[in-house]
Design brief:
This protein is an alpha+beta fold. 35% of the residues lie in helices and 14% in strands. The chain contains six helices and four strands. A four-stranded mixed beta sheet has the order 2-1-3-4, covered by helices on one side. The longest helix is centred in the N-terminal third of the chain and has 12 residues.
């Protein structure tokens, strides 16, 4: 199951090698400054069920837009970066203002399947171990990303 509806966006990579290189890049301690999760009150139970142990900020859904619509009714997952100069182009294409990526489906995949965590630092050894166990063929690609 996913936290996101059908219109939420992921990132399509040209190859598995490219995807695992990006994972290596993201696992570096000096690259991903903050992995953020914002969750509307009514979605907290689902978030906790889908991503147990992950931290989050609660979104106050009592706030309204100028038209009277509720603010941010869906889960928001964002990746913030300090410096994107060495970022693989396949990932850089998705960076928006504030050096961030707002691709919720992609971020959810990192959290659910590869050992990434919401917060300010990633455990590259843990992430590498997961990839080595599940996808050993792509360890050279992960290591290449880690070296960027």
């Amino acid at each position: 199951m996913s936290l996101f509806s059908g219109h939420a966006k992921g990132i399509v990579f040209s190859s598995k090698e490219d995807f695992f290189e990006v994972l290596g890049y993201l696992a570096k301690s000096d690259v991903l400054v903050h992995f953020e999760a914002q969750v509307p009150t009514e979605k907290i139970a689902q978030f906790k069920s889908e991503l147990p142990g992950q931290s989050f900020y609660e979104i106050d859904t009592t706030d309204r837009t100028r038209r009277g619509d509720p603010m941010k009714t869906g889960v928001q997952l964002r990746l913030y970066f300090e410096d994107i100069s060495k970022m693989p182009l396949s990932l850089k294409a998705h960076v928006v203002k504030g050096n961030r990526i707002n691709r919720g489906v992609f971020a959810e995949e990192l959290l659910k399947n590869y050992g990434f965590v919401v917060g300010f630092s990633q455990n590259s050894d843990k992430i590498r171990d997961i990839i080595e166990t599940r996808h050993p063929k792509y360890i050279p690609d992960f290591d290449r990303g880690l070296a960027l």
